[in-house]
Write a structure and sequence with these properties.
4-stranded antiparallel beta sheet; 4 helices; about 25% strand
Amino acid sequence: ITRSALYRETIMTLYASQVDLSSLPHQSTVDRAKSILDGLSRGENHNTYRGKRMHYDRCVISIPVGYRYRLLLLAERGSYVVIDVMSHERYNNIKTIQKRVKQVKRNWIH
């Protein structure tokens, strides 16, 4: 295992454990979110899961988790940092997302 792979795995483990999946309604949705996080920690690309970069900040990636939920990631320094798992209704509110992204970036940089 390379040093960068170990680093990426450690980062994903730290941030995946902080993601609150209790807001997801079904166990299948929780399993899907965990599956995506596991795949990303193994080094898979976000495009594998239909992830798309946001137009307002190209570092933010949105991955659909089921029909009504989205997983938001911050792509920084060759790794992914989990921002949040949210409903599509909340996801549509750009202001909420931008505020959360700024908060995660501040914590990530310091």
